[in-house]
């Protein structure tokens, strides 16, 4: 971390442009962080919320560049707030550094992916400041690389892979997380009948309807190629299938401008951490393999073996 971020840099403090939101119920820790980070050139805001929704409200109000999120808050877990903010597209790439007294926090921090990290209490404030600067920079790079797909409005595979790694290592290290890959079948038929613009219209409609039909905690993105990726935290593979199958059936007939109608058919591959994989890479590959089986066997959905 550059020297001008260090404690006592008056010029840096007066020119502060980056804001850190601290979500912490221990006020002495928050006061210490406020003093350090403000002197180091950051604008720091502290909240002690009662509900996950209050965390989201604070994000809307203060628009931070990075969040320091305690897991053990008053009356709820910080993981609940983490999942809630990740359901909002505007916070999909916001760096969140989870602070915890868990004894395995260091291992989680070393394993985590994407733009997030796991820090144990007690922490070294200089190392934490370095990490904040690194994650803000990483978020900027990821924002530039991921980009929104102009057709569906979804972020790309870099975002999907980062969120999957974050969910496994940050929000649910001991619980299930489902990753599903969906592919629209009969693409060639649509292209033949209505061309590329018609296919793009169908894709937009499918994503919009899927968002409305599936639970709010489902994260959507684009996988490599033209596949729809869905991350379903807190569900087993069987529970996720119970949610996904009706949604696939209920998308219904799509009518394009000009009167062409199309009833989309899907193939979906479903894999669950930790049942089918021990890390994010294995989870992605398991879902991809299940999708291949679904496509080859012309089945609506297949759960990984």
Protein architecture, described:
The protein contains ten helices and 14 strands. The chain has helices at residues 10-14, 27-39, 52-62, 78-86, 105-111, 125-146, 157-171, 187-213, 237-250, 280-297, and strands at 18-23, 42-47, 66-70, 72-73, 76-77, 96-100, 117-120, 177-184, 219-222, 228-233, 254-255, 261-262, 266-273, 301-303. A five-stranded parallel β-sheet has the order 2-1-3-6-7, sandwiched between helices. Helix 2 (27-39) links the parallel strand 1 and strand 2. The longest helix has 27 residues, at 187-213. The relative contact order is 0.10. Residues 1-16 and 108-112 have low confidence and may be disordered.
Q: Which class of secondary structure composition applies to the elements?
A: alpha/beta
> Which regions are unreliable across 5 or more consecutive residues at pLDDT < 50?
1-16, 108-112
**Which sheet architecture does the biggest sheet show?**
5 strands, parallel
Q: How helical, in percent, are the residues? A: 40-55%
Question: Topology of this structure?
Answer:
Blueprint: H1 10-14, E1 18-23, H2 27-39, E2 42-47, H3 52-62, E3 66-70, E4 72-73, E5 76-77, H4 78-86, E6 96-100, H5 105-111, E7 117-120, H6 125-146, H7 157-171, E8 177-184, H8 187-213, E9 219-222, E10 228-233, H9 237-250, E11 254-255, E12 261-262, E13 266-273, H10 280-297, E14 301-303
Parallel strand pairs: 1-2, 1-3, 3-6, 6-7, 13-14
Antiparallel strand pairs: 4-5, 8-10, 8-13, 9-10, 11-12
């Amino acid at each position: 971390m550059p020297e001008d971020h260090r404690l006592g840099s008056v010029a840096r403090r007066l020119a502060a442009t980056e804001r850190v939101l601290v979500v912490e119920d221990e006020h002495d820790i928050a006061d210490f962080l406020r003093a350090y980070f403000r002197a180091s050139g950051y604008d720091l805001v502290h909240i002690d919320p009662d509900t996950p929704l209050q965390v989201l409200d604070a994000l809307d109000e203060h628009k931070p560049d990075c969040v320091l999120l305690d897991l053990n808050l008053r009356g709820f877990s910080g993981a609940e707030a983490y999942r809630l903010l990740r359901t909002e597209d505007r916070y999909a790439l916001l760096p969140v550094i989870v602070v915890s007294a868990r004894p395995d926090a260091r291992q989680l921090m070393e394993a985590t992916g994407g733009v997030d990290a796991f820090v144990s209490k007690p922490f070294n404030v200089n190392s934490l400041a370095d990490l904040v600067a690194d994650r803000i920079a990483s978020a900027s790079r990821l924002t530039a690389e991921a980009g929104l797909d102009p057709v569906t409005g979804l972020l790309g595979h870099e975002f999907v892979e980062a969120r999957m790694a974050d969910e496994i290592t940050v929000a649910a290290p001991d619980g299930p997380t489902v990753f599903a890959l969906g592919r629209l079948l009969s693409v060639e038929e649509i292209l033949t009948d209505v061309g590329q613009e018609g296919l793009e219209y169908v894709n937009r409609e499918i994503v919009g309807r899927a968002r409305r039909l599936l639970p709010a905690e489902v994260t959507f993105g684009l996988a490599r190629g033209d596949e729809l990726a869905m991350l379903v935290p807190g569900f087993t593979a069987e529970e996720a299938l119970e949610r996904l199958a009706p949604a696939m059936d209920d998308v219904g007939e799509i009518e394009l401008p000009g009167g062409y109608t199309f009833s989309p058919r899907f193939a979906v591959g479903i894999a669950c951490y930790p049942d089918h994989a021990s890390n994010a890479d294995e989870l992605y590959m398991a879902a991809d393999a299940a999708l291949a089986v679904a496509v080859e066997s012309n089945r609506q959905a297949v759960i990984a073996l």
